[in-house]
Design goal:
With 554 residues, this protein is mainly β. It has 6 helices and 36 strands.
Amino acid sequence: MRRRSLLLAGGGLAAGALLSGGWLLPDSVRARLRDAVLLGREEHVGEPLRDLPVIRSENGVLDYDLHVAPARFTVAGRRLHVDAYNGMLPGAMWRIRPGDTVRIGFHNGMRPMGLPLNAAPPMCATRPGENAGGPLECVPAFMGHLKEGETLPQMLLSSNLHTHGMQVSPEDPSDNVFLRIEPGQSHDYEYQIPEDHPAGLHWYHPHFHGSTSHQGWMGLSGPIVVEGDIDEVPEVKAARERVIVINEMWLNEDGEVPMAVVVPTAGKTPFSSIPAVPTSMLFPLNGQYQPDVSIRPGETQRWRVLNASPHRNIWLHVEEHPLHQIGQDGIPFGRTREVPSIMLSSANRAEFIVKGGSPGRYTIYAEAYDQGHPGGDRPRVDLGTLVVEGEPADGKIPVDLVEPPRIPDLAVANRRELKFSGDISGQEGMGVRFFIDDQLFDQDRIDQEVVAGTVEEWRLVNEDVFQHPIHIHVNPFQVIDVQGIPEGDTSWQTSPDIWWDTFRLPPEGEVTIRTFFRPDITGKTVFHCHILPHEDNGMMGTLLISPAEGEARR
């Protein structure tokens, strides 16, 4: 069978024109720009938010070739040179249904940028306490752990594919995050979507330990929409759908993600390379810089928003517009919740209804927020503009939605306590290391073993000043207790009936979660901090989901 493949040759003119930050503008945008100049306003007018290309399952099968290779884009007037999925930033949207089979032909065509593949990385530095003129000793890279004889470029260009949030097998040929796919290699994935899979927004991205941050900063990500019951709620069905991917791109002056050792710093840009070069952050929506999102007064739209940032929490606000949330992390609510804003940690997704207010332009932004970084608050970022204009509409906000999943009425089979900590002293190498139960990640070690078909409670204790958004693969969970929320921090959602697959631990606080391990999915997978520099530097553990006694492994 021939797979469909949306590939923009070389990522050149077609991709650049599609994603351009400042040319090929529609006449309506040009007119607003002209008016802004004539009136003396300093107002950013963006391109209309684009819809992402869609790959849809047909007759129960989605069959698609996914190439990751260098491409060039223009965003915010800057020329970018990054690896991309099929020449697109972000990747195409997959739309599937429960019971479908998803077949992905993954092809790693990444190439080094700034260093030849066999180059020795600049990894030598003076140990703390040594004189500047003293002996130099090679120490581990900030991102990941190199094997003997391995160079930094070789590690950063190794990849694989993770379908984040999907309740699918973690074993080959499905969602096996332990695979290492080198440049020039390919791998065929096949995912069987359970018949009872919840409807909602998930996503795909790289998950090779040591390279996740580097590849995430390139914008390697794409949404997965599982269609189902909530799509048939009349008010939801009537609303225009917008799928929005927020990327965080850390770039040097050449528009590339530095292929170098990375260390955390204070300041507006929270990371620096070794050797240090000027860098900055971009936060595009669907590959566009601060686009305009149009809506009519009174019109309702359904927004599905993914925070694909490797590091940044997005405390999402839409100026003067409340958000009517209908789902979190790919699982719908039973009733709509009106909230003034939604916090999206790295990897979180939120689905909500926006209703157009009075005509005008309203900023879509991430509010400044302190997530425990030594530099203090991450600054406010303007992401786009909600443009309310046109003929009034009479959109309706839903109240009752669908019956959400429920944890079976089973006794808690096991209670566990896990400790999360970090070391920023530099004694463990350049920068920091992050630990779970005082151990760095080792894929050959089993850290936690659970039994499929059982309910467990985990107490997650954070001994660190960083907030750590913890993600557990395969099975989502509910949060039944949170301790240590910083005083005055109004960004937390702590209702115990919300389902999550990623939830942040307060600094020096703790969270208790409850989960049901599906009886039909077993295998070895992982749990980890989804601040990807933390994951790459050790904060990940292995999880073995064993079949119940007498049950065969799926």
